[in-house]
Inverse folding.
């Protein structure tokens, strides 16, 4: 993360409802919060949440955050083809796109952005980390974007996972680790 | 010196001193303490006065006036807040059961009643009535059904009888175009949350005495923490019916009671005993 | 003071509990439903009452009953639901009862949409019901302010015995930001000798009522209420200024639109254009003086609003039309991009005030 006061890290995460898009965004926001940054998290809401596409904007900044809406993300994380089609054109030039190529059938078309392909859903299945593809791709993103150190994962998870689901923290950590160390 | 002590509901003692007649007389009829001593605005012959008295007597006899909050409707009884001696709230048209819910849920140890007419309770406020019953709100609803809109000058009510002439049914209520009267007790009796529903009438002394028992019961149940309680009281409107007070009572007996049969429609209290 | 991430809607709910609001009556509607859900989870554990009413009409009348009974009380809804509540809000104002009403606005008119909007500005600030009356209207622009202003709303409502409204929008309701409630102290409590709690045989009966049939009496009652409004206008205006000291162009914006406006101001300042922001925090009373003092100093004003020209009226009124005031509007659930606001500022800087 840049230390410059005026630099905002703008992240957009998108996929199907049920893939844990909003959870992944909240986890990222807590990473920022625990690192002393200003953060905002804004979900898409409405009927499309139920089974359709889900997305959320996360802004991490050293200064006060203006708009919480990420129209032009520097980082785009996508977990289905419609989201890649929808948001690829919005990424700022030089931005990074992380795509789950276990589910996304096409490649990133733009030449002025960097694309990373992580078969997160297949990895999750192989490792018995059901429903944790979101955290695998997030781990890969965090590593490449230099968002935080590995040690920050556990405390942020502790904040993000609701009390009655604390038993899932280990699996989440494993998923993050899998993505973090994925080449 | 002779002194008559008249025990009031609040345990206070009204002392009447040194009158000749006092020594040899006793009160057989006084205004209930739960009524404020002011003239009402009701038309001559209107039965609202009787019904107010029945409510006030119940509050007196159960000694609950000091912890009661009443909700006045929009309709002829809109100014009931000036007549009952308990704390009073004037609600929007039809919303008395919602207001009562707000009070009762905030002050569960208080006694809360609504006093509503047929337009208020059974037309514009049907949803509030039905849902207060569904929730089993521990309130008492005094429902005055006179088959007409009195305050606005005699228009059709939801309880206007088929064929009945009103200002807005000048050819008589046609069920083809204006639909049928709503039978509130019958409807509310189907609701699990209703604890007590009885229909009574104030057209004659016998029925008034029965009405008094029903009103008191509807409050007693609330005192015991039970609800939803409703007493539907068939009432007259001599002014807008265009009848003398006596003829109005006769019209009620002859026309309303056959359509709206008197009786207990639901009484969970009986089963609980 | 540990900060946690909370949705704006949840922050309002927690702040209300913090302000000793232990009763809640409401009806679900997007995008405010988290408030009701939060209350339904928390209140029963605190000995309070959460009740899902049959309609917004019933909710607001339950609020009236609870307020009459002396409770601190809140309800929440979104635009179409607030329209349904307007009857009850008018009665509450007419009865001089305190309560807090939250409107997390969505696009309209009619059923409209569910995306964020500011199109209920007129409804909120002019009067959200029939008759001569006002509600205090507070417009947060962050999750922390959603919490802080909820406390303020309860306090002002009790202090002046009138409805207070939190006017948010779908973005503020749905977004999460770090928030802490530690800084909010113990709520101020007010004696309510007028409340209908039962006479206990110890006093005359209290009557909560908005019916005054004699016009002379009703006029006097309205006069008295407006004397109170005059005090509120004098003493309770709140606003924020951002980079106004050297500003040539002032943006007027509240809520979510004010956040996007700040991004735009940063963008144009990089190009040497001196733009600033006045953000009304109280929409009623409108911070008229804050705007008036710039009326002779700046080139003009731009009203950036997610509505088709509502806030702009108050900007014009408070600046006496001494300088051009232009509109930068999105509506129907659309939100400005910083770029389009920046464009508008740059055009204005060149003297184009269309």
């Amino acid at each position: 993360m840049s230390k410059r006061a005026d630099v905002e890290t703008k992240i957009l995460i998108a996929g199907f409802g049920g893939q844990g898009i909003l959870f992944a965004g909240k986890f990222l926001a807590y990473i920022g919060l625990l690192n002393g940054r200003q953060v905002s998290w804004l979900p898409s809401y409405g009927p499309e949440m139920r089974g359709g596409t889900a997305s959320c904007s996360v802004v991490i900044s050293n200064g006060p955050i203006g708009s919480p809406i990420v129209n032009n993300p520097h980082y785009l994380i996508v977990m289905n083809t419609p989201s890649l089609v929808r948001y690829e054109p919005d990424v700022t030039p030089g931005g990074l796109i992380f795509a789950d190529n276990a589910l996304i059938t096409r490649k990133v078309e733009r030449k002025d952005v960097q694309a990373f392909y992580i078969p997160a859903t297949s990895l999750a299945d192989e490792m018995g980390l059901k429903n944790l593809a979101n955290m695998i791709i997030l781990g890969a993103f965090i590593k490449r974007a230099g968002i935080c150190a590995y040690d920050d994962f556990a405390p942020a998870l502790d904040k993000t996972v609701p009390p009655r689901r604390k038993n899932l923290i280990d699996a989440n950590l494993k998923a993050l680790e899998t993505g973090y160390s994925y080449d | 010196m002779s002194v008559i002590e008249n025990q009031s509901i609040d345990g206070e003692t009204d002392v009447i001193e040194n009158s000749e007649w006092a020594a040899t007389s006793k009160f057989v009829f006084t205004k209930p303490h739960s009524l404020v001593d002011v003239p009402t605005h009701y038309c001559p012959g209107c039965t609202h006065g009787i019904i107010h008295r029945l409510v006030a007597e119940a509050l007196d006899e159960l000694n609950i006036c000091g912890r009661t909050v009443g909700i006045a409707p929009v309709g002829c009884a809109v100014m009931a807040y000036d007549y009952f001696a308990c704390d009073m709230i004037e609600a929007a048209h039809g919303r008395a059961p919602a207001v009562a819910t707000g009070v009762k849920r905030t002050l569960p140890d208080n006694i809360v009643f609504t006093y509503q007419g047929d337009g208020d309770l059974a037309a514009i406020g049907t949803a509030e009535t039905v849902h207060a019953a569904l929730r089993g709100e521990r309130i008492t609803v005094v429902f005055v059904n006179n088959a007409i809109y009195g305050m606005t000058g005699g228009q059709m009510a939801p309880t206007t009888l088929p064929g009945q002439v009103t200002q807005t049914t000048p050819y008589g209520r046609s069920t083809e175009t204006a639909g049928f009267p709503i039978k509130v007790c019958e409807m509310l009796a189907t609701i699990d949350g209703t604890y007590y529903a009885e229909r009574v009438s104030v057209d004659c002394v016998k029925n008034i005495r029965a009405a008094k028992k029903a009103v008191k019961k509807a409050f007693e149940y609330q005192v015991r923490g039970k609800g939803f309680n409703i007493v539907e009281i068939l009432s007259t409107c001599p002014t807008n019916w265009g009848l003398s007070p006596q003829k109005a009572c006769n019209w009620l007996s002859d026309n309303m009671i056959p359509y709206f049969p008197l009786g207990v429609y639901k009484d969970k209290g009986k089963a609980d005993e | 003071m540990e900060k946690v991430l909370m949705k704006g809607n949840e922050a309002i709910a927690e702040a209300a509990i913090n302000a000793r609001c232990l009763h809640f009556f409401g009806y679900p509607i997007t995008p405010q439903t988290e408030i009701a859900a939060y209350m339904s989870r928390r209140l029963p554990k605190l000995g309070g009452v959460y009740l899902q009413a049959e309609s917004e009409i019933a909710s607001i009348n339950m609020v009236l009953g609870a307020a009459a009974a002396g409770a601190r009380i809140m309800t929440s809804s979104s635009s179409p639901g607030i329209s349904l509540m307007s009857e009850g809000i008018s009665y509450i104002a007419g009865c001089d009862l305190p309560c807090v009403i939250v409107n997390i606005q969505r696009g309209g008119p009619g059923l409209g949409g569910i995306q964020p909007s500011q199109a209920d500005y007129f409804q909120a600030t002019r009067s959200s019901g029939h008759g001569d009356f006002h509600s205090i209207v507070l417009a947060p622009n962050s999750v922390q302010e959603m919490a802080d202003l909820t406390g303020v709303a309860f306090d002002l409502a009790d202090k002046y015995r009138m409805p207070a409204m939190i006017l948010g929008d779908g973005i503020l309701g749905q977004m999460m930001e770090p928030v802490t409630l530690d800084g909010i102290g113990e709520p101020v409590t007010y004696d309510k000798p007028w409340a209908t709690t039962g006479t206990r045989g110890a006093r005359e009966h209290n009557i909560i009522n908005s019916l005054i049939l004699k016009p002379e009496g009703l006029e006097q009652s309205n006069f008295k209420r407006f004397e109170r409004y005059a005090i509120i206008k004098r003493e309770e205006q709140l606003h924020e200024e951002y980079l106004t000291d050297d500003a040539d162009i002032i943006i007027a914006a509240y809520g979510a639109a004010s956040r996007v406006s700040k991004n735009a101001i940063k963008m144009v300042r990089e190009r040497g254009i001196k733009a600033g922001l006045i953000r009304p925090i109280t929409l009623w009373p409108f911070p008229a003086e804050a705007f008036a003092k710039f009326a002779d100093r700046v080139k003009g004003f731009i009203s950036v609003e997610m509505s088709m020209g509502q806030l702009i009226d108050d900007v014009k009124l408070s600046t006496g039309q001494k300088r051009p005031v232009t509109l930068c509007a999105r509506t129907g659930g659309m939100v400005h991009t910083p770029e389009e606001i920046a464009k508008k500022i740059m055009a204005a800087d060149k003297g184009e005030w269309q």
Summary: The mean pLDDT of chain C is 96. Chain C has two domains: 4-235, 240-349. The first helix of chain C runs from residue 8 to 18.
